[in-house]
Design brief:
The complex is a heterodimer of chains A (113) and B (114). Chain A has 113 residues and is mainly beta. Chain A has no helices and eleven strands. Chain B has no helices and eleven strands. In chain B, the strands form two sheets. In chain B, strands 2, 4, 5, 6, 9, 10 and 11 form a seven-stranded mixed β-sheet that branches. A four-stranded antiparallel β-sheet of chain B has the order 1-3-8-7, with no helix packed on it. The chains are: A mainly beta (113), B mainly beta (114).
Chain lengths: 113, 114
């Protein structure tokens, strides 16, 4: 089955710097890749997603890139702010209803001011 | 929060007792999911439902059962709770007005089995 590896497990940056989190997946049939942000005591919040027919997607300070040949995708956060501090999860699935999202183990991002 | 509530939000119980967690949604989503979150494992799918009375197993279904008698409610039952089921449980939905593969999560239930 699908396996998703996520790196790094922790990431500390200064406010205003960029942060990059990388994920690799094993199943070439996966074609939907969402990213979630989880704050302490809350449920995962979808922040951006990408599908296999797209190489890059941006939403304000957040961008995701996908390389299907290499089976990896990355989250880029620019101009980080203290409120970006949270745990970020990548996931992969086969882009159909009822399919499990297979999650990476998460990255704890700390943004210091 | 995609109109999802979970109850209870916190529960402490003893080994061997039955426990039922409830997920309630208000937006008529067809698909509902139960995940558990554990340190070092991320989130893993327990069971999911694709309609009233239609359910299927996920990756970590042993020791859990589910029921969905109404569109809005998806129940997760631990018939006889064990310490290994201490976890945070999240419900998710997809389907109504959003791509069916896009899942939105509820606030979670923290379960402790002593």
């Amino acid at each position: 089955g699908e396996n998703v590896e996520q790196h790094p497990s922790t990431l500390s940056v200064q406010e205003g710097d960029s942060a990059v989190i990388k994920c690799t997946y094993s199943d070439s049939a996966s074609n939907y890749f969402p990213w979630y942000k989880q704050e302490l005591g809350k449920g995962p919040q979808l922040i951006i997603d990408i599908r296999s027919n797209v190489g890059e997607k941006k939403d304000q300070r957040i961008a995701v890139t996908l390389n299907k040949t290499a089976k990896h995708f990355s989250l880029h956060i620019t101009e980080t702010q203290p409120e970006d501090s949270a745990v970020y999860f990548c996931a992969a699935s086969k882009e159909q209803a009822g399919t499990a999202l297979i999650f990476g183990k998460g990255t704890t991002l700390s943004v210091s001011s | 929060d995609a109109g999802i509530t979970q109850s209870p939000r916190h529960k402490v119980t003893e080994t061997g007792t039955p426990v039922t967690l409830r997920c309630h949604q208000t937006e008529n989503h067809r698909y509902m999911y139960w995940y558990r979150q554990d340190p070092g494992h991320g989130l893993r799918l327990i069971h999911y439902s694709y309609g009233v009375k239609d359910t299927d197993k996920g990756e970590v279904s042993d020791g859990y059962s589910v029921s969905r008698s109404k569109t809005e409610d998806f129940l997760l039952t631990l018939e006889s709770a064990t310490s290994s089921q201490t976890s945070v449980y999240f419900c998710a939905i997809s389907g109504q007005g959003i791509p069916t593969d896009t899942q939105y999560f509820g606030p979670g239930t923290r379960l402790t089995v002593l």
